[in-house]
Amino acid sequence: MLKKLLIANRGEIAVRIIKTAKSLGYRTVAVYSEADAKALHVEMADEAVCIGPAQVSASYLKGAAIIAAALKTGADCVHPGYGFLSENSGFARDCKDAGLVFVGPPEAAIELMGSKRRSKIAMQQAGVPVVPGFEGDNASDEELIKAAKAIGYPLMIKASAGGGGRGMRLVEKEEELADNIQRARSEAQQAFGDGELILEKAVIEPRHIEIQVFADQHGNAVYLGERDCSVQRRHQKVVEEAPSPFVTPELRKAMGEAAVKAALACGYEGAGTVEFLVDKDRNFYFLEMNTRLQVEHPVTELITGQDLVAWQLSVAEGLPLPLAQNEIQLNGHAIEVRLYAEDPANGFTPQTGPLHQFRPAEGEGLRFDTGVRSGDSVTPHYDPMLAKVIAWGENRNEARRRLLRALEDTTVFGVTTNRYFLSRIIGNDTFGAGEATTAFLQQAFRDDPSMAPADISLQELALAACVFSHGISGPGAAHGNLNTSWSNAPATVTPMKLETGEQTAELLVRRAGNHFTVTRGEEQHELDLESMSDGLLCIIDNGVRQHCQYHRRGDHLYLQTSGQAVAVHDVTHQPASGSAASGSGRIKATMDGAIIDVLVQAGQAVRQGDTLVILEAMKMEHPVKADRDGTVGEVLAAKGDQVKRSQLLVDITAGEATAEEAGQ
Ligand code: MV4
Question: pTM for the complete prediction?
């Protein structure tokens, strides 16, 4: 009987695996890098072992350190999760050689499916439809050019060692072939250490539909429906759903049986995913087989009611599959999106920074798989996925409606995310009609407002003015209903200067009781502030009572209505930035580099010229100094962070620290 599981991974998948393992009575061992010492998965596990520094090559990819941790803690099995070593046959072998059960397929299956060429040949022999093409053994350029004549155009050149879109080139016409073969060959050699190439007929605007398969050690294999992962950006899946709106029951059966054949043909055991390309006429072609549990497995779990990690552990123990094919039922519909710390309005650049508030929405049919919580920071060391947001419904519209609401209600304050971009996709009509192919994002969605910087609206500025109009701030500032506390106060008019992004808005804020009139130049916006408590503003705007989520930290405020989240900095009391006497107090990185020391903390009084942070760049240390007197409002960088030029590091607010700010 297996009793103690080591999870050789981090983040949401480590948390997810630990939850199932604990529920089945396993003791759990986490491994972590120095940067993850305070991470959720470490806290949740029964035991945890540090396996090295932040960089993955010295920690999460260090098989020997992981196996040593397993032996040190007496673990008897190892779950690799996805990514990292999950498809590394050498690691699987090393686990076995160390007497550990590797929760995954035999290494021979991992190796076979790691070669596009060999896996395609094996699939052809197993009777699985593959894309017509040429898979000669280490074919020369001349052999490929000759073979292309029989395939026709457009065609795909693919690196045999490639996958997930890497090492792939589309060739539209014959005269482009020779040059593209040479380039593909050198790119493959460079990227994978293996220049072997294959050719395939190009499938136009395919859908990416994958089948979840499971096999045990007794020759049983089943499929658990399909997942449609066609909404992708640069071969990164953005939305996954089950079942596919494009798949008919006949197609499901045909693809499922083909996927089972693929699994049986390679002596598979455990969880696997067979990826297919599906053309507009519902012809399907084997693309590749992933020999791991996939990121998107929750949508399959929700419509089958099965816990796939529990299945994996059961198969690893040598038990037969929990269900036979005719017992697997698909019920309802599930859609998943991946919430990332990235900025769709700036080329999807990965973002780092503090998660001042991470508040997943709650509601019927919602599931959040996450490895972070409020107070954590997003570092540049790892994939910046914050969570998977999954919604289940009786039908696709119900799942889609729930997911849309969940995305609009979830707040991530402190770091930019793709949340609004995701909500725009889920709310999009083409997607809603189930007509999104792999071309959707770069065709039907390329001009969506979520992919361009947006100016803050006057309503959002008015909301910020309401919040900043309260002298006190922070969690203790619950105000409840404001009517009584303000109704008898005389009307006041105060100037306000609010900064958001690179813009500064000069406002006049007139308040009479809880009625606000905010003027910016010629524009005016009025609203009534009903209540403000526990991060929720209730206002009446143009006769409509509505809510807005907010999180305030001193002069910094994060707001979210139903659209994009905005960060607003109240710079009203800061001296004009032009004054020679002092700067803006917004201390930014002067160049790309690594933070090697942070010398101040929030609430600390500083003088102009004080060194706040030490930045290392170009093998030199660069002190970053205060450009004015004042109080440290926020320290937005931590030792070890990689920062970009002009990234905000420290924010110095005016005057002495108040007791409450110093205590923040
Ligand atoms: C293809 C193809 C069209 N024809 N192969 C392979 C890896 C996968 N992530 C992308 N791949 C493709 N292979 C042939 N013969 C089109 C793609 C493709 C794609 C496939 C599924 C989902 C998204 C895609 C985005 C671009 C290209």
Answer: 0.86
